[in-house]
Structure formats: structure tokens, C-alpha cells
Specification:
The structure holds 2 protein chains of 2 kinds. By secondary structure, chain A is an alpha/beta fold. Chain A has 2 domains: 58-295 and 495-514, Aldehyde Dehydrogenase, Chain A, domain 1 (3-Layer(aba) Sandwich), CATH 3.40.605; 300-479, 3-Layer(aba) Sandwich (Aldehyde Dehydrogenase, Chain A, domain 2). Chain A is 38% helix and 16% strand. Chain B is globular. Chain B starts with 8 loop residues before the first helix and ends in a 16-residue tail after the last helix. Chain B has a single domain, classed as Aldolase class I (TIM Barrel, Alpha-Beta Barrel), CATH 3.20.20.70. By secondary structure, chain B is α/β, with parallel strands linked by helices. Classes of the chains: A alpha/beta, B alpha/beta. At the A-B interface, helix 10 of A face helix 1, helix 2, helix 3, helix 8 and helix 11 of B.
Chain lengths: 515, 312
């Protein structure tokens, strides 16, 4: 029939459609394709969160239950990445401060470690409740310190931090049952170094299980983001936590090295980049310290052709643009089934056009500021590498603030396994889109990385989810969702993404001596 | 019945239009409710919402007198001249000619539910006669219900044939196809029914969530599934179909969340009352109350606003 002769070979014949006058052939063929208009017909006014973050001009070290100045007398500046203005001065701790912190922790362990679990639990419940009381204040402080949108700190970081304290408080009086048939005892003093991407939440992941089990801690927040850790120290004081149970030493990376290598530490826990993790592991090799490492990732988010596409697109966005992509388990590699690759990419572009990039304190901001100039430069370097290696870069049109470290959400198409942007962790809002044809190919590509922290699978077929979650070498596999966290669920990696688990019973056992 | 019943009509349709993940939809729409609409954007959003209201009375006790006051309210919702008139009044077929008298020559249109609203359970012949009658009496828009029985039984051809027949009976009147989402139950079914309807609709016709006569009506979730379908249909065919959530939207804030969904899913071209409507009655006075509050800084008592349709 002549009418069929004009139809492209891929268009299904009209008679086969389940719809009358349905989806094919498209009447607009040959004319300009229809496009959606995302303009400013109804623009939102700025809606800044106005709660007072109650920042101090200067933050000291928190040792033995008190705020003390560093022995060196030196301080460094903490910058708000959204406007490059100074937020506060932070104490620069060194070797004598770290020694003092460990000494205080050792002393405190004598009582804290022997205290009945039920009593320890009361302190943890108190911390969680006091944090909830001051949730908005902490959310604003976290946003100013880190650059992440207030929507995330308010709805995720702060409530999740409290949830971890609540959860582990609940374990404190049930430690008899945590390892049936065996006895769980605390390890002693633990050294902990946490990253800047979730300053409060990572602190809770480390401190809550350690304290619940009866350990005392020396913790160093990342030098970019110390403020909320020290604000939480105020809560520790208010909660009456015995002095020395938690000690917070701020300072440069070298201070972190001192904490990790300190002879008093019976266990060290680190979350951060794989490179630094390797340095730490070398420095403590040969000793008898226990270790938990939560390192980098290059997660594959795998979309099959039977997936609910709109919700998959939403999951892809949550996977890579949550916290500006500065997430170790970010879904930074999108593996999409070839038959739907074009459709998924097109829908993704429309979705990115309505993401709001800008002032993190604005309640409508979806993508905030990158944590630091150095991190922004690293990400931009990767954008250059991606383009130079022949991948096609796309960014939605958006007006970025003139000050601050901002980057539009970025997609790369035409990426293959050998591109650096598909192999190396970028830690930014940059998504590399690769395609696959078969299930086996998807598994092989997903596992073809030194990392193994997380993965996502999008399909309507339950048996395929089970198969994929068995074969993907990743600590967490999300099915038809992404970036979901819960205190009851253990989190951690395979291969160079680290070892040990945080959260759940498994995470608790990483802070216990079993006999 | 079709000769081959396997795979089922639903399976074949889902293969063509894709499925919906309920958890994902609800997560998406939860974000709309966190949008903070303040100051000028709030006022313009509220006025936009007023201009999109299909001011509705669908009661057995409706009289020409009540219709007269409904029409007056539709034309002049509030003494503030900046407040626009609503999009349409929505009435039963027997009230169309009374409504028409009051709004003829104005921007307010007369919409009439027809096709044995809300159940649709009369012979097609009767339903078509009702549509013709309403159109002849001057209805600018017809709100029909789909044959849910046929839909749930997988008789999609019949569902589409009936919509086509109603469309023909409408003449120039725009058609709004009510899916009655609460009887379809799943998001998958809502998406499927949306595509069945859009497959036969003309540019400028609407799909609509519900009659307002069942327990569950418009929610951000089923609104999202339907506007996703409208967007997919538009990008595929170039035909823009309108959307009308109806029933259950009583608050101004809620209406703004629906508009955020439209803004972020369909874009600016749907932020007009030719493409988006609210089927509501109580909503109007809450919108007016919020507009007044933005202007004066204080909430006015309800009795400062003339009665809306629901209050008598």
C-alpha cells in the first residue's frame, strides 16, 4: 500500500497497534519534532530558608568533653562554597592534640566500656532527640558548610543522622543478642576519619555504632566541612555524654593520618577516596589494628527496555545528581539497553531542563554548589577529558550564580568502557551513558571496574532482578530505585570500594570483639 | 471478542506504551509538594489556578436559580478586578441552557457532563442522545465517562469506538474524557486508559481523572501518570491534549502543587486554561482567600467571600 511505503521500516504497522489511531505513524514526521517549552511563564520567587544556623566565629577542638584551642594556636578558614565567603575559623589540630584526644578517650573507655548498654543507649537517644529539636538549624549550617541544597539537608542528611543514633541506641541494650551464642565486647578506642560529602551523616554512621557497642572515639571531620561535627559536639555536651567518649580533632589531611596511625587506636574506620584509603592501609600494615574502609565507587545504573522509563529517569537523576553527584555510591555510569537508549536519553534531557541549579539555601534548589574550588576544578578537568576522548557532552541551559562553585548537571553520550569518564570516579554531577544489548553484556560491563560499591537495576521482570543482584559485584544493589539508605541496612563495598559494613547488625559487629 | 485472547489486550498495550512504577511515581510527586511558592509567584500561580477552575455543581437538587448564582460567581469570583473569571461552569445537561443564558458572550464556557454521568451505564444510543442534546443546548465542552466495564474486560476497541462516537456527537464542543481513576485502580491502567482516549481525541480535547462521585479522585500521583502520558503522546504525534484533575482538590496550596507538576512535566504550553483545568467547587474560595491574604497580609473570615457552589 502506498501509505506504508512512506513509513520508516521501524514504525509498527498501524493494524498491529493495540491502539486505534494510536502511536504510529507519527503525523508530524517530516516536520519539526514537537518540543516542550520549559520557560519562565511562571517563575518561582526566591524562597530562602531563614532559620539561624547559630554559627560561632571560631571553632575549637573538642577533647575530653571541652572545647580547647589547638596546641599550635593555628586556625584555618571554612568557606561557604555557594558564595566563597568565610563562615568560621577552625582549629588546626596536630600531633599533641591527637595524643590528648586519644588519652581522653582511653580514660573514658574505662567507664563507658563497662557501663550497662541500657545506660549508654539513653545517651544516644538523648543525642538523637536533641538533634531533632535543632534540625532546621543543623540543616542550614550543613548547607552553608557543604553547598548541598537545603531540601537535602532538611529532608535527608539531618533526619537520617538522627535515625542512625536512634537505631543504634536501640541496639545498646540488646548486645547480648547481636551475635547469638557469642559474646560481643567493645574494642576500645577507635580512630575515625570522615569525608566532606555527608558531614553529619558520615559522622553518625561512624559514631553511633561505635558508641552503642561501648567504644570511645577520636574523629576527624573533613577539613572543608567541620562545622556541623563541632555543633554536634555542643549536643554531646548538652546530652551529658561523659567527657572523652567522643573527641573531635579538626585539621588538615595529615592530622587524619596521625589519627589513623595512632598506637592507641584498636580499630580505624575511614570513609573517603580509594587513593587515600590505600595510603592509610599501607601506613598501618603489619599492626593489629582492625579496619573498615569505605572508599570510592563507579556504580552502574542498568536500565532494561521493560523498565518503567519515567520512573527510571527519576532514579537516574536521584542516582547521579543527588548531592551534586558527590556520593561514593552515585550511579555515575548509566548502562542502558540499546532499544530504549534514545528514549531514555531524550527523557533524561527533558528532566534535567527542569532541575533548578543555584543558591543551596533556596528551598526550591535541586542542585547546589560543589564543595570546593579544588573539587570543581577536578570535575571540570574530567569534562575536558570526556570531550577530548570523543564523548558528546550535554548540559541543560541554566543561569549559574556569579559567585560560588557551581556546575550544571552534565550528560555524556557515546561513552564506552575505555573512556576515562567511564572508569574513574569523578565525584561530581556528571553522568556517562553507555549502552548494552544483552543481560550478560550488562553484567560484564557493570563489573568491569576496580570499584564495587553499588549498582542499580531497572526492569519489570523480578527474576532478572534476582539474577543481576547475585552477579553484580557490588555491596548494594538497588532494584527499581537508587540511593536509598536506612540505618538497618548494611552499606559497604567490594574490591577497591573497601571492606567492612556500616549500618545494620553487620555494621555493629565491625565495632565488636566476639568471643 | 477478539479471536486471539493471548497475550491479553493489556499485555499488548503495555508492551506498546510501557508500564508505571507506583513507588517511583509517588516519590516524584512528593517533590512537587516540597516546592516553596512565595510572593509574586504565589499570587500569579493562584490567579492562574482561578482561571483554570471548572466551577462545578452536579447535584440532583440543582435548579436554574442555583445555576444563575454559580454563573455569576464564575464570571466575577471576587470584587478584586485583578482576579480573572474561571474557565467554565460544569453542570448537568438539563442545566446547560440555563447556564448558557448567563455566560453567553463571555470568556466563561459551559461544560456539561453527559453519557449517563457518573456510571455511564445506559445504552450507547441513550448516551449519544444526551451528548447531542447538551451540545444543541449550547454546551461548549462535554465531559464524558469511559466505559470502565469494557476497559477492565480488555475490550479496548469498544472503549475507543464509544469515545469516537461521542466525539462525533459533540460537533464543535471540546470533549473531556473521564477515566474514573478510582475504578481503574492501578497506575498502569490509568496510563493505558489515557492512551486509549488520546488515540481518538483531537487537539485541544482533554482527559480527566474522575467524576468526583467516588471515594478517590484527583491525586498528584494519578495526575502525574496522566500528564506523563500526555507528554509522551505530544512528543510522539504533535497533538496536545489537555488535562483536568477533578474532585478532591480543595486547597489553594494543593492546586499550586498540581501546577508545579504541570510546569515541570509538560512545560509552559500547558500552563493555560485551554490545556489545564481544575474540576472543583470549594477550591475557588480558598484560592480567593489566599490571594486576599497575599494582598492584605491577613486571612479574611470565610463570610467575606461570596458563596461558592458547595455551600448551599
Amino acid at each position: 500500500m502506498p501509505v506504508h511505503a512512506t513509513m520508516p521500516p521501524t514504525a509498527p504497522a498501524k493494524a498491529k497497534s493495540a491502539l486505534r489511531n494510536g502511536r504510529a505513524p507519527s503525523p508530524h514526521r517530516g516536520r519539526t519534532a514537537p518540543a516542550l517549552i520549559f520557560g519562565d511563564l511562571w517563575e518561582f520567587d526566591p524562597a530562602p530558608e531563614s532559620a539561624d544556623p547559630k554559627l560561632k566565629p571560631r571553632y575549637e577542638l573538642f577533647i575530653n568533653g571541652e572545647f580547647v584551642p589547638p596546641r599550635s594556636g593555628k586556625y584555618f578558614e571554612s568557606i561557604n562554597p555557594a558564595n566563597e565567603r568565610k563562615l568560621a575559623e577552625i582549629a588546626s589540630g596536630g600531633a599533641p592534640d591527637v595524643d590528648a584526644a586519644y588519652e581522653a578517650a582511653s580514660r573514658a573507655f574505662g567507664t563507658w566500656g563497662r557501663m550497662p548498654g541500657r545506660e549508654r543507649g539513653k545517651y544516644l537517644y538523648r543525642v538523637a532527640r536533641l538533634l531533632q529539636d535543632r534540625a532546621r538549624e543543623f540543616a542550614v549550617a550543613e548547607t552553608m558548610d557543604n553547598g548541598k541544597p537545603i531540601r537535602e539537608t532538611r529532608d535527608f542528611d539531618v533526619p537520617m543522622c538522627a535515625a542512625h543514633f536512634f537505631y543504634h541506641a536501640g541496639w545498646a541494650d540488646k548486645l547480648e543478642y547481636v551475635a547469638p551464642g557469642r559474646k560481643a565486647a567493645p574494642l576500645g578506642v577507635v580512630g575515625q576519619v570522615i569525608p566532606w560529602n555527608f558531614p553529619l551523616l558520615m559522622l553518625a554512621w561512624k559514631l553511633a555504632p561505635a558508641l552503642a557497642m561501648g567504644n570511645c572515639a577520636v574523629l576527624k571531620p573533613a577539613s572543608n566541612t567541620c562545622i556541623t561535627a563541632l555543633k554536634l559536639a555542643e549536643i554531646f555536651q548538652d546530652a551529658g555524654l561523659p567527657p572523652g567518649v567522643v573527641n573531635i580533632v579538626t585539621g588538615p589531611g595529615s592530622t587524619g593520618g596521625l589519627i589513623m596511625a595512632h598506637p592507641t587506636a584498636s580499630k580505624i574506620a575511614f570513609t573517603g577516596s580509594t587513593d587515600v584509603g590505600k595510603v592509610i592501609m599501607r601506613s598501618v600494615a603489619g599492626g593489629d589494628k582492625r579496619m573498615t574502609m569505605e572508599l570510592g565507587g563507579k556504580a552502574a545504573n542498568i536500565v532494561f527496555d521493560d523498565a518503567p522509563i519515567d520512573q527510571a529517569v527519576e532514579g537516574i537523576v536521584n542516582g547521579i545528581f543527588f548531592n551534586q553527584g558527590q556520593v561514593c555510591c552515585a550511579g555515575s555510569r548509566l548502562l542502558v539497553h540499546e532499544p530504549v537508549a534514545a528514549a531514555v536519553t531524550a527523557k533524561l534531557r527533558n528532566r534535567l531542563r527542569v532541575l533548578r541549579v543555584g543558591d543551596p539555601l533556596d528551598k526550591n534548589t535541586d542542585v547546589g554548589a560543589i564543595v570546593s574550588r579544588a573539587q570543581l576544578d577536578t570535575i571540570k578537568e574530567y569534562l575536558k577529558i570526556g570531550v577530548e576522548e570523543g564523548a558528546e557532552m550535554w548540559q541543560p541551559p541554566c543561569r549559574l550564580p556569579s559567585k560560588g562553585y557551581f556546575l550544571p548537571p552534565t550528560l555524556f553520550t557515546g561513552v564506552t568502557q575505555s573512556h576515562r569518564i567511564a572508569r574513574e570516579e569523578i565525584f561530581g554531577p556528571v553522568l556517562s551513558i553507555l549502552t548494552f544489548r544483552t543481560v550478560d553484556e550488562a553484567i560484564e560491563k557493570a563489573n568491569n571496574t576496580p570499584y564495587g560499591l553499588s549498582a542499580g537495576v531497572w526492569t519489570d521482570k523480578g527474576s532478572r532482578i534476582l539474577k543481576m543482584s547475585t552477579e553484580l559485584k557490588a555491596g548494594v544493589v538497588w532494584a527499581n530505585t537508587f540511593n536509598k539508605f536506612d540505618p538497618t541496612s548494611p552499606f559497604g563495598g567490594y574490591k577497591e570500594s573497601g571492606f567492612g559494613r556500616e549500618g545494620g547488625r553487620q555494621g555493629l559487629l565491625d565495632y565488636a570483639k566476639l568471643t | 471478542m477478539p479471536a486471539i485472547a493471548y497475550p491479553s489486550a493489556f499485555r499488548r498495550l503495555f508492551d506498546e506504551i510501557g508500564t508505571v512504577d507506583a513507588v517511583g511515581v509517588e516519590e516524584r510527586v512528593a517533590k512537587y509538594a516540597t516546592r516553596s511558592i512565595k510572593k509574586a509567584s504565589k499570587v500569579s500561580g493562584l490567579k492562574l489556578a482561578v482561571s483554570m477552575v471548572d466551577l462545578t455543581t452536579l447535584e440532583g437538587k440543582d435548579t436554574p436559580g442555583k445555576i444563575a448564582s454559580l454563573c455569576r460567581k464564575a464570571l466575577h469570583p471576587h470584587e478584586d478586578p485583578d482576579v480573572p473569571s474561571v474557565a467554565a461552569v460544569c453542570v448537568y445537561p438539563s442545566m446547560v441552557r440555563h447556564a448558557k443564558k448567563h455566560v453567553a458572550g463571555t470568556a466563561v464556557r459551559v461544560a456539561s457532563v453527559a453519557t449517563a454521568f457518573p456510571s455511564g451505564q445506559t445504552p450507547l444510543k441513550t448516551r449519544l442522545a444526551e451528548v447531542r442534546c447538551a451540545a444543541a443546548d449550547g454546551a461548549d465542552e462535554i465531559d464524558m465517562v469511559i466505559n470502565r466495564g469494557a476497559f477492565l474486560a480488555g475490550e479496548f476497541g469498544r472503549v475507543q469506538d464509544e469515545i469516537s462516537a461521542v466525539l462525533e456527537a459533540c460537533g464543535d464542543a471540546a470533549l473531556k474524557v473521564i477515566l474514573e481513576v478510582s475504578e481503574l485502580e492501578t497506575y498502569d491502567a490509568i496510563r493505558a486508559a489515557s492512551f486509549l482516549a488520546m488515540g481518538v481525541l483531537r487537539e485541544g480535547d482533554f482527559i480527566k481523572t474522575s467524576t468526583g462521585k467516588t471515594s478517590l479522585n484527583a491525586t498528584l500521583g494519578n495526575n502525574q501518570v496522566m500528564i506523563d502520558a500526555i507528554r509522551d503522546h505530544f512528543l510522539d504525534t504533535g497533538i496536545s491534549i489537555g488535562m483536568k484533575p477533578a474532585g478532591g482538590i480543595r486547597g489553594a496550596k494543593q492546586a499550586l502543587h498540581f501546577l508545579v507538576a504541570v510546569k515541570e512535566t509538560l512545560g509552559d504550553a500547558w500552563l493555560v486554561n485551554r490545556r489545564y483545568r481544575f474540576g472543583a467547587s470549594a477550591l475557588l474560595n480558598d484560592l480567593l482567600r489566599q490571594i486576599e491574604k497575599e494582598k492584605t497580609g491577613a486571612y479574611q473570615a470565610p463570610y467575606y467571600f461570596s458563596d461558592a457552589a458547595e455551600s448551599y
